[in-house]
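Write out this protein's structure.
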Amino acid sequence: MNPSAEHPPQTDPEYPHQAVTTRWEKHRGASLGIVRRGLEGLVLLVAIQYFDAGDTSKAWLAAAGSVGQLSSLLFVHLIARLGLPVARAMGLLLAGAAAGIGVAASVEDFRFYFAGLLFGVPLVSVCAPLVTALWRQNIPDLQRGYLFSNVSERGSLGGLVASIVLALWIGDELARYRPVFAVLAGCLGFAAYCCFRIPSKPLEKPTKHFASILAWLWKDKRFGYVCATWMIMGVANLAILPLRVEYVASAELGLHYDAWLVLCLVQIIPGIARFVSAHFWGRLFDSTNFIVLRILLNMFFGFNMLLFFHDQVWVQVLASICFGLGEGGGEIAWSLWVTKFAPPERTAEYMSVHVFLTGLRGIAAPLVVYALLQPLGLRTITLICFGMIAGSCVLLLPLLALGRRMQAEERANRARAENPVGGGGGV
């Protein structure tokens, strides 16, 4: 299929910064893909095996990204009050993150490692609502999903390469972590530079306390309902993530595979599936009923849960592919879905609520699942999580009609954009 046939390359005159935004966002996406996979692969591993960190320190490091998500309400409020253009605010946050990761790389001392990561990692997470607001400002509705899939694709490719190189470089020598963190800091610095090159506008000035942003959950009942279903699915999915690693890596709970096979199942195979499916999910986000898309993504995550905890590697590979496909579409849906619900001037606020809830479940889900693991066992927890995924799909069914109406409106907008004289009646 020729993507340009469905998504014409010409710039919409109402969005003059479309080309420069997509160009620099691709570079930012690739850099952050490397950073995310590098941090996922190393932060806790170095803390546990190299520094022999205590449980409290490990818990804070594991929750660093979620802490940033929880603080997104406050940061969006402050950025709006300061009147900073969205892309410039992103650049400043990523520059701060680069400084934090640089501190972690600079000295072989756990105090610097801990402080640098606890400062830098949350700042990366805080950017999520600003990314959505930037894409709402600079990218047309009818091409947003497809064009964002290019960014997602670059991020997946960068992350995949980073996972492989990281495994080859580190091996059994965790003392080599400092050059890796120095490279990650450089990637964050480049991502900040990319943001500074993108024109953007400030967010609308807030009129109330930052916590009042949460009121959108009950003021906009459709938004609140979708957030509730997402919470159910998200808690189940995030609860399963650490158990996937435990099952294939742990001698006590699972199969105790060697490190390379574990890396293939939990990072490399999902990364390949995420990379090859990005454009498909981007087109689907633009063209299909969003509620159907969300249900389809939930089903892929559910299949992963049912298949992964098997004793045959080929079944686990199939589960990892399902998980990667779910992640490929899930990243696009997670990043852009509020643009289908929020008024343009409130996009960052809606997204900050969504990110806040993501942080909440990111902290709660692992704590709950590890508390229940001993009394209930792995199989029972897996079935409970699968039931939550299925339940979230059922709860979305009443919104199918809403999704059809939204899809019809998008098709009408597409027709008017392709035939402005006939479709718009000259007004």
